[in-house]
Each structure stands twice: as C-alpha cells, then as structure tokens.
Write a structure and sequence with these properties.
Elements (H helix, E strand, L loop, with lengths): L9 H7 L9 E5 L2 E7 L5 E7 L5 E6 L2 E3 L2 E7 L8 E7 L2 E2 L4 E2 L42 E2 L22 E4 L1 H5 L13 H4 L2 H10 L3 E4 L3 E3 L3 H5 L10 E7 L8 H14 L3 E6 L16 H9 L25 H16 L5 E4 L7 E2 L2 E2 L4 H8 L7 E4 L18 E5 H11 L6 H8 L3 H4 L9 E3 L9 H4 L35 H19 L4 E5 L28 H4 L1 H16 L16 E5 L3 E2 L11 E6 L9 E6 L5 E4 L5 E7 L8 E2 L4 E4 L3 E8 L3
Parallel strand pairs: 11-12, 11-22, 12-15, 15-16, 16-19, 19-20, 20-21, 21-22
Antiparallel strand pairs: 1-2, 2-6, 3-4, 3-7, 5-6, 7-10, 8-9, 13-14, 17-18, 23-24, 23-25, 25-26, 26-31, 27-30, 28-29, 28-31
Helix pairs in contact: 10-11, 14-16
Length: 689
C-alpha cells in the first residue's frame, strides 16, 4: 500500500482487531486483511506498532489473541495491507540473570518477517545494559514490511540436477558482478546483476549446474567493524532469516531475488542458498536486542546453565541457536519453507550445521530438526549441504549427517593441498580422497556424492593465493593479522606474493591446474570457488569477511590475462560431464577392476608401494561404455619428472596435461610417458580394431 494511508487512533485499531489464527508465524496477507502471529511465551502483552509505507506512525495496538505461547491478531483491509510497516514491543520481565530479556523500550523485528524496511543501525539504545535498558530503540530499528507474495513464475521449474552431475559454484552476489564490464552499472552487485545473460553465459561455459550464494538473509554489520570503518561483507550476521538482504537490491529485494532465480532456472542452473541458522546478529550478553532476545531469549538461544545472563558460544559469534527447542526449530522450518515455496530456491548450505543437530547441547544425527526436514513433503526434496562442524564440544561431525545430505569435506581440501606441496606420507590418503572418501561416507549406504569436495572456499585463501603465499596477510582487517586460519597448507614457490620470476610463475600456474584437476576429476560433488578459474587473488588475505572492496570482488580483467587457466578449467568440466567414470553413484569395489592404482614401473600398486617417500601414482578407470576407452590419470607431486610405463593392452592418447595445458590430443609413443615434476596428465585408451 503506498504511503499516505490515513492515521488511525489506537482505539479504532483495537476495535477493528479480531483474534485471528495462530497457524502461521509472521504477518500473513489474506484476501480480507493481515494476520499477525508471534511466539512470546513469557510476555504479559505484545504490542503491534504500525506505520505506513513512508514510515509515518499510524497506530499501535495489542494483539488480543493468545494460543499457548503464541500471540496473534487479525486486522481487516483497508486498515492494513501490503506496503505497511510493522514492528513489536513485548511487555514483561527484563531479568537477564534468569534468562528473560523482555523490554517494551526495545522495538523488535518480527522473527518471521518476509521483508525489512532497512538495516539496524548500531546504537546504545539497542542494548539492555544497566544504563541503556530504558533507552528506546525505535529511531535506529528497521520495521518489517507487509508484502504481497504474488509473483509471475511463468513455467518456472526446478532444474533438479542429480548430485552426481552437479558442479557447485560458490559466489558472493555483490562481489561477483560488482566489476563486471558487461553488466549495466546500476545492476552491478545486485540480484538482477546475477540474472544478466552475460553472467549466466559465463556460468554455463564453465559447466556450472548450481550456484551457491553466500548469505542472502537480512544481515547487519557488527559495531566493532563499524568502529574500524569496515563492513560485514560476507553476510554471516543474520537479523531476519526469511527476509532477503537489502544490500543486493535496487528497490524490492523480494521481487528482484525471485527474478534472479527465474532467470537462472531458465538456463538450467540451480540456486543453493548459504543459510545461517546457528547464530544471529544479537551476539552475546553485550550485544543488541533486535528480535529473538526480546521475544523468547531462553527459548531461542543456548544460555549458560550456570549463569543464564550469558550465552553458549559454539559458533564463535557470541551466541548459539538452540535448534533442539521447539520455537527455534519451528522458526527455522518456517524460514526454509518460505525460501523454497515462495522464493523457489533449490537447496541450502547450512553454515556450522553441527549446531542444528544439537539437542541438550549434544549432537545427535537423529535429532528433531533433521527428522522434521526429512518428513516435510517440500523440504525433503531439495538439496541439503552441511558444514559439518562448529566450535562446541564434539563439534566435528564429518560423515555423521543423515542420508540425503552431503557434507563439506575438509579432509579432501587438506589432503589435496598437502599432496601437491610435496608433503611426505600422503599417497594413500590422496588416493582415498580421489575415490570419494569411502572411509568417511561408505557407511549407511551413502554415495560418493555425499562428499562435497573443495580445495578452496570463501573462508580461506583463493586458489591463486594458496600457491602464492606461505602465510596469511590479513592486515587490512585491522586485527594485527591475528584473525583467519594459520593452518593453510599453502606453498609459495620460494617468493612470498607477486613475483616476476618466470619459473616460479610457471610452477604456480601448474600447481593451480593440479589442484583444479584433483577437484574436478575426483569422485564426489565438486565445489569451485568463484574466481579460481581465472586466478583471482585477495593479496594473501584468507579472511576477507570485512573487505567490501575490489580486494574481495571478482576481477573480470582476469578474463583476458588468465585465458590458459580458464580454458583448462573448461576442458576439465567438459571431461567430467562427458565421462561417467568421474560421476559414480557407488564406491569402488575394493576387490573389483573399476579402478587400478598404477605404479610408475608399469604394474598395479602393491601394499609395499604406499610408502612414506612415494609421491607419484597412476589411476586407471575402466570405461563403462563401448565407444570410450579406459582413462589413465597420472599424478606426480615429486619435484622431478617421473617416467610412467603404460599398460600394454592398448594404445594411449594424451588428452590433458597440467604441464602443457594448451596442447591438444596427441598419441603417446614408446609405451611410456614422462610426467613433469609436480604435474598431472590424463590419457585415454585406444584399442586396436
């Protein structure tokens, strides 16, 4: 509804309000009005504050219906409707020492809001300390927006790409197009920028089937970053789980997000949303009161059992959502359904997903939230990716998520990095990771695709920096380089950072191609970090969460200077899609002939060959179609060249090499091939007619 709606008296609004229904959280538009529902079990009263679309205060009224822990009320049209803004004040006891933080001086965002009018501004009035408890926060708080959820989806259909055929591409909505020369300046860095044909064409040319968008839930910047003149760029600081982030919209985030999804779906590309349900921007006991704290602090968060004024911090972000509690679980499920049903997303990557499996603080694979997702007729059909750890007790849970989920495999990441920098004793582990990490995922009849393989992600070095820096360089974050990971398994070739030494530059290129080959030619589901296909650098910063600047954005000028890498990646993704040997849905039979591990001497590997000083092996994959030959992948992480004697039952074609990335297909003569130091190659069998 446009601004200028008539101001009404609270008494008039109270007379018009009826009890309504308690069925669905949030402000739900109905044909004849709007139904409001919130969860606030300890409240004495819940006050609904209404404004028009321009932010002019219209009236406030108390919800007059209560069903158990829910407060609800219905207001008819035309008194209220789409475009109006709303928020709440919750009356009751503000006793942090006993876990309650109800405070009518704090204006609260509806936890189930579908849209916000703005972003909270850090201010003392948001806090409930001794001297800030009675400061009113209305001046710095956004309101929820009542929205019309109608949208013309046309014949939109979910692409439903099987995991075995998926190539996940992790990107940041703003950073990906902020510098794209082919995107109109007004659309750069937005949902609509990602929907531009030139951007979608890039994704298709890479072979991307699924984009994984870094957080698009409404978020805000932490006060400590603002004091340093920085912003939260990544978005892992959520304010409202079901409201699309305003930062990436021109006008209407709800509309523009859906237009983006529709355009990607037309191209056959899935949209996977990185969601943050493990904590919120409300932080610890010194953090702001924005929403959940003011409705049901002890129901939504894990509190310190010895001192309920404090919060358990299994996330490193100040607080931890109690996903084992009914109110938190219901709010999470409600949000997931909204993103699937209304926004048409195809799946989710759950940040610090171990938190979501905790009940009474302990992780349980068969927990109530996961069971509810599995039982839901809508949510059970979408893609689910777990980041299988948090920093709480027993927080590392790789391999322990339910069937139907896949999991970010940091063991794959670490082993590939370790192998290619030449660490000793990792040959067997390297082969295990190439094979889909059966040691982790074979149990309970899971498939190799349950392993989400990656060598880099948003959290850490880019691929170019992984082979260009021995240590992190996070000085721009203004934390004296203390933040970010120290265990990076990186290698710089002898010079830290940029260099004009052509030999080092050539080795760095080869190292990048080796890592990309390991990623894209392994069993499992590969995830590629946006920009790694063309050498994007963050100048050694491995924690660019607060760098909303070119340092962390995609540098599209690399399209011209990094053609070798780009062409090689496209050849790798095409090979992966063309050959089902890389997309197995069962693990290799340890007693079968689907894979033969090949010794450079020209024979199958024996148990004694997997020794500490071994750095090279071959991997023969049996073809599954009559018109294709076997594949032989040769991996050499030793600094010197290694001569591989080839199987003699057929001839061989060299089809790919990280040492000669632009070379075409060529026959291999003489029954052997010399594989350059720290390089890999792929051969295809040619059988005589």
């Amino acid at each position: 509804m446009p601004s200028g709606r008539a101001i009404v008296e609270s008494e008039e609004l109270a007379e018009a309000m009826v009890v309504g229904e308690a069925s669905r959280l949030g402000a739900t538009g109905l044909p004849d009005g709007v139904n409001f529902v919130v969860h606030a079990p300890a409240a004495e009263a819940v006050e609904l504050c209404l404004e028009d679309g321009a932010g002019n205060t219209r009236a406030s009224v108390r919800l007059n219906g209560r069903s158990g822990d829910r407060w609800h009320g219905f207001l008819p049209s035309p008194l209220v409707g789409p475009g109006d803004r709303y928020a709440y004040r919750v009356h009751g006891a503000c006793q942090p020492g006993s876990g309650q933080r109800l405070n009518p001086h704090k204006l609260l965002i509806d936890p189930a809001a579908r849209a916000l009018s703005g972003i909270p501004r850090n201010d003392p009035s948001l806090h409930d300390g001794a001297w800030t408890c009675e400061l009113d926060s209305a001046a710095v708080m956004p309101r929820g927006r009542i929205v019309d959820l109608d949208f013309d989806w046309g014949n939109d259909r979910r692409p439903e790409v099987p995991w075995a055929r998926s190539l996940v591409y992790e990107l940041h909505v703003k950073g990906f197009t902020q510098q794209h020369p082919g995107v109109a300046p007004g659309r750069r860095g937005t949902y609509l920028g990602l929907a531009e044909p030139v951007v979608i064409d890039w994704l298709l040319a890479l072979g991307v089937t699924s984009v994984e968008l870094m957080p698009c839930q409404a978020f805000m910047t932490e006060a400590f970053l603002e004091r340093r003149g920085l912003t939260n760029y990544w978005g892992y600081n959520p304010v409202a789980w079901s409201a699309p982030a305003l930062q990436y919209a021109l006008h209407d985030p709800l509309l523009e997000f859906r237009q983006m999804v529709r355009a990607l779906h037309v191209a056959g590309i899935e949209v996977i949303l990185d969601v943050v349900f493990n904590h919120t921007a409300e932080g610890n006991e010194h953090g702001p009161v924005l929403s959940l704290k003011g409705f049901d602090n002890e129901g939504y968060y894990l509190l310190d059992p010895l001192d309920p004024r404090r919060y358990e911090n299994f996330t490193g972000c100040g607080n931890t959502i109690d996903a084992g509690s009914a109110p938190a679980r219901e709010l999470i499920l409600d949000s997931l359904r909204f993103w699937v049903e209304t926004m048409h997303v195809d799946g989710f990557r759950f940040d610090l997903a171990t938190v979501l499996g905790r009940e009474r603080r302990h992780y349980h694979r068969e927990n109530l939230l996961f069971a509810a997702i599995q039982a839901d007729p809508l949510l059970s059909t979408v893609k689910l990716i777990a980041e299988p750890w948090d920093i709480g007790p027993d927080g590392y849970q790789l391999g322990h998520f339910p069937n139907g989920w896949i999991e970010s495999n940091d063991r794959f990441r670490d082993q590939m990095r370790s192998f290619w920098r030449g660490d000793r004793g990792g040959l067997g582990a390297f082969a295990e990771r190439l094979s889909g990490s059966a040691d982790v995922f074979r149990h309970r009849a899971r498939a190799p695709s349950a392993s989400l393989n990656f060598v880099t992600s948003h959290d850490g070095f880019t691929l170019a920096d992984l082979v260009g820096y021995a240590v992190k360089h996070n000085e721009a974050n203004l934390e004296d380089n203390r933040d970010g990971h120290d265990h990076n398994l990186s290698f710089n070739g002898g010079v830290e950072g940029p260099t004009d030494d052509e030999e080092i530059r050539a080795q760095r290129l080869k190292s990048r191609l080796n890592l990309l080959s390991s990623l894209l030619l392994s069993q499992g589901t590969p995830m590629l970090l946006a920009g790694d296909e063309c050498g994007r650098t963050q100048q050694g910063n491995n924690n660019a969460y607060c760098q909303d600047q070119p340092l962390a954005w995609f540098d599209w000028a690399l399209m011209e200077t990094e053609q070798v890498t780009l062409r090689f990646v496209r050849r790798l993704t095409a090979l992966r899609q063309a050959r089902s040997e890389f997309r197995r849905e069962t693990f290799f039979d340890p007693h079968g002939h689907e894979v033969v591990w090949w010794h450079p001497e020209g024979r199958p590997m024996m148990s004694s060959d997997w020794r500490e000083d071994a750095h090279a092996l071959g991997q023969r994959l049996s073809t599954v179609t009559a018109d294709q030959g076997d594949l032989l992948l040769l991996w050499n992480a030793w600094s010197g060249a290694v001569r591989f004697a080839l199987p003699t039952d057929c001839g061989w074609l060299l089809i790919l090499s990280s040492a000669q990335p632009d070379d075409g297909v060529a026959p291999v003569d003489g029954g052997a091939i010399l594989v350059d130091g720290r390089s890999m190659c792929v051969l295809e069998a040619v059988r005589s007619s």
